[in-house]
Amino acid sequence: MPDIIAETERLILRTIDEGDAETQDRLLNTPTVMARLGGVKELHEIEAKHAKSMALYARERFSFLFMIEKETGEMVGHCGIKRVDNPLANNVGDHEIGWLVREDRWRRGYAEEAMRAVLNWAFGPVDAPYVVALTSKPNVGSWKLMEKLGMVRRENLDFEDPSYPPEDQLVIQYSLTRQQWQECKL
């Protein structure tokens, strides 16, 4: 049974559970949604990420979560906290936040709503001193949300990842400290 981590006005954020990979594959693993995230994944890759997320939650009490729309009970995205695990990054192990919303729910504010709850979780029970978020320059919607959340561009953390297409090879990072988050909320 998944744990409910947070509730917002329109969403329930719950832990990933056994059997959720097929739902994610069906609703989120589309060419459009995955365009800036390395492309569509094989089901076994999603299952491996879910296993990693569940193990992280068991070990550290944070992970990625499913965003469940209260009105319909449908999964509309995922979001959460993990550790930076790209070996090309010079900040491996930092608390990394992220999100993904299915295409038919874009431009409804779900990502911002969910990420505000995730940041409260990160700076509350998780007790992270700061968080980072990774994206690419062409992923304008992603870094615009980072800025809206009060995150600051950290060019010193940029790195190239040749596993992404050429236009997305420069991975850019933003960060947010607990103090910055508290000041944003005032």
From TrEMBL:
It comes from the Bacteria. It comes from Pontixanthobacter luteolus. InterPro entries: Acyl_CoA_acyltransferase, GNAT_dom, N-acetyltransferase. This is GNAT family N-acetyltransferase. Gene3D superfamilies: 3.40.630.30. SUPFAM superfamilies: Acyl-CoA N-acyltransferases (Nat) (SSF55729). Residues 11-177 form the N-acetyltransferase domain. The keyword Transcription regulation does not apply. PROSITE patterns: GNAT. Keywords: Transferase. The keyword Transferase applies. PANTHER family: GNAT FAMILY, PUTATIVE (AFU_ORTHOLOGUE AFUA_3G00765)-RELATED-RELATED, N-ACETYLTRANSFERASE DOMAIN-CONTAINING PROTEIN. Pfam families: Acetyltransf_3. GO terms for molecular function: acyltransferase activity, transferring groups other than amino-acyl groups.
